[in-house]
Design a protein that fits this description.
Layout (H helix, E strand, L loop, with lengths): L2 H21 L7 E7 L2 H8 L6 E8 L2 H14 L20 E8 L1
Antiparallel strand pairs: 1-3, 2-3
Amino acid sequence: MNVFREIKFYTVLRDIRRQLSAYTRQDRIRRFKIGITNDPERRYQQAYTNEYDEMILLYRTSSINFVSWLEKELVSHNWDISDNNIAGGGGNIGAPPYYLYVVIRY
């Protein structure tokens, strides 16, 4: 992997990790789950309206590989406190753009 590309990947991960931490402080929320989708409205309506209060989009990209890597890293980093049962890879995601999101229960 190109060194400059690797630095960019880890810079994006660092920034999103900070953003996610700001949204998911334990004194502000009860639960959260990290995921990816290509249709945020449909995903929230079909999967989360009964369990979570809000979906926040953290990142948008055309690369399924990059967004999948971000999801895996963030879930791994938050494994003990998130509602994620697996570290990503929940199924066929469709065509780009892809969104990394967090759903939150206040």
